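Appendix B. Raw example, untouched.
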Amino acid sequence: MIGKPGPFQIIEEDGTTDQPIAAPRRRYFCTQYETCLNLAAALDWDSFTCRGCSGEIDERLLWRARQAQKKDKIAHDICDLPQISQVDPDLDNPLVKIAGNR
């Protein structure tokens, strides 16, 4: 797939994260969709989009979500985030390779 690792938080032009007028583009049948829902919940995002996503998880978001889980007991209890099994150090933007998905 072409694009960048996602998901992507929806942020309005003025910097707010209010709900968009139109529904965000989502790839409900993506193998990573449930992980993206958990990332968005752990990071306390109002909404996210799959537009421009390559179908891979952005490692930086996964690390941020794991840190958020440490601070938020509810996020820790309800958000199921994957373990990082391998990171490709040769890429400028490393991709998370989740065990069982590759």
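End of appendix B.
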